[in-house]
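An instance as discussed:

___
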Amino acid sequence: QVQLVESGGGLVQPGASLRLSCTASVRAGAMGWFRQAPGKEREFVAAISWTSGNTYDGDSVKGRVTISRDNAKNTALLQMNSLKPEDTAVYYCATGAYYGPSSVSNPRRYDYWGQGTQVTVSS
């Protein structure tokens, strides 16, 4: 059983930055970040391949997020900049086998999920 521990959420003002962290007990093929706002479906934010380091961003956050990894610590970091109120959501990290670029945005491709961390963007 893989365990994921997230941290870094909180309340920030519009335009601010925030960095989320996710540490896995075991490193799998890929690490992804998703978010879910009340009444909305889970949305892909970003993902990274543990092996190659290739990164992928969701359309709604493209240009405002950077995902990176620290292999030695089994940790993935999500740097979010220029945050908007519509970024408010619970953010989840997930890990699973890497099936290629077309699969990273599909939550069904991930086997293990963190507990989620709340990000609220409000003035």
User: Anything to note?
Assistant: The chain has a mean pLDDT of 95. The chain is about 0% helix and 45% strand.
